[in-house]
Design a protein that fits this description.
234 residues; alpha/beta; 6-stranded mixed sheet; Rossmann fold; binds adenosine-5'-triphosphate
């Protein structure tokens, strides 16, 4: 079966620093896959390279079988690879609903009604300014904006970082609903409990290379590997 997203032997640099040293991973249709690794391993760089914000020196990016390597970021976004970055990128001075309206796209299977069903808080807050939202609500708004684009694959960079446990639970449930709607997800997240609750498979990145790949069950039953690569007791 054709992967929803396939990265093959990606190499990327910041200046002379060789950050990605051959990243190979794939996300299957309907899957949630995590990309784990210590700080500085290259997780965010992998996501940025996949969406064309960084041009890879070598390797290949395929979206649903279509070669997107070297395409500019706007083309890759239009083809359906959406990144929700760590810094959230919402318009602070627009209301929630305005933020959503400008993200709507003709031909997208996602309507504002679909979004409000997954994120009822956004409907409650629809007349509030983006800048008045809590951190969790901003995160929801930014995921919602990416969905309206009708992504073939959604990439989330640390969606629950710094959020209160009760909001984390809400966002975990929302990510599940998004997957149930058929959107495959590549998740970068430091919160291992969240990763274990959501993911079908896990990749571990170390110094710009994938050093381990495991199914959810293998991962849970192998705390030594988790400790070795991530330095945490699972
Ligand atoms: N704009 C940049 N210019 C130069 N080096 C950078 C830049 N952004 C990141 N780096 C370096 O690239 C490496 C990988 O960074 P990246 O942000 O991809 O790691 P990460 O795994 O996402 O870590 P974190 O969890 O800390 O965000 C790090 O050594 C980082 O210092």
């Amino acid at each position: 079966m054709t992967a929803a997203l396939k990265l093959t032997d990606l190499h990327a640099y910041y200046g002379k620093s060789h950050i990605l040293q051959g990243v190979t991973l794939e996300v299957g249709p309907g899957e949630i896959v995590t990309l784990l690794g210590r700080n500085g391993a290259g997780k965010s760089t992998t996501l940025k390279t996949a969406v064309g914000l960084i041009t890879p020196r070598q390797g290949r990016v395929e979206l649903a079988g279509r070669d997107m390597t070297g395409q500019p970021a706007h083309r890759i976004a239009a083809a359906g690879l959406s990144l929700v970055p760590e810094d959230r990128g919402i318009f602070q001075l627009l209301t929630v609903e305005e933020n959503l309206r400008i993200a709507e796209k003709r031909g997208s299977p996602w309507s504002l009604g679909d979004i409000y069903r997954i994120f009822p808080r956004l409907e409650e807050r629809r007349k509030n300014g983006g800048g008045q939202l809590s951190g969790g609500e901003q995160q929801m708004l930014s995921i919602a904006r990416a969905l309206l684009n009708g992504p073939k694959v959604l990439m989330l960079d640390e969606p629950v970082e710094g959020l209160a446990p009760i909001i984390v639970e809400e966002i975990v449930a929302q990510i599940r609903l998004i997957r149930e709607a058929g959107v495959p997800i590549l998740l970068v997240e430091q919160n291992l409990a969240v990763c274990s609750q959501l993911a079908d498979r896990h990749y571990i990145l170390e110094l710009g290379r994938i050093v381990h790949c495991a199914s959810a069950a293998e991962f849970r039953s192998d705390p030594d590997t988790i400790d070795r690569y991530l330095g945490v007791k699972a």
